[in-house]
Design brief:
Layout lengths: L2 H31 L25 E2 L5 H4 L7 H13 L17 H7 L3 E2 L9 H7 L1
Parallel strand pairs: 1-2
């Protein structure tokens, strides 16, 4: 075998090895950086996020009106309407997690709202926008 053939064969072998090892090296580099930020967290170990400082009280998902639902941070008239429609379709929410079935309310939004959500009792959530405007 001449030197040109040996060099070409050697380069082809190196290329093949690097192509085979690249995914494994990439995965180990990702693991060394720590857990991915978009990895789902275990629901049982996740503690609820505290309510925003400007919001006080709770809202009863099963009895709240459209106007009361819009008091929730990030919930406007159309999302409040979707909540009421889902509530009607389901004959009331069985758990607060049912709220995630509303389009636009994912796990991240739910975690922000969770401290303010109840299925029983009176709605006591103050409208943060109105109280801030009065000050």
């Amino acid at each position: 075998m001449n030197s040109i053939t040996r060099t070409t064969t050697h380069r082809a072998g190196l290329l093949l090895v690097s192509l085979l090892l690249a995914p494994a090296l990439s995965a180990s580099a990702q693991a060394a950086k720590g857990p991915r930020s978009n990895a789902p967290a275990a629901a049982s170990s996740a503690s609820p996020v505290p309510a925003p400082a400007s919001v006080s009280g709770v809202i009863n998902l099963n009895t709240a009106s459209l106007e009361e639902l819009t008091r929730l941070p990030g919930v406007g008239p159309s999302r409040a309407k979707a909540i009421v429609e889902l509530r009607t379709k389901m004959n009331g929410f069985k758990s607060t997690e049912d709220l995630m079935r509303v389009r636009g309310i994912g796990r991240k939004t739910f975690r922000k709202l969770e401290p303010m959500l109840r299925l029983q009792g009176a709605t006591t959530l103050a409208d943060a926008r109105k109280s801030a405007a009065r000050r």
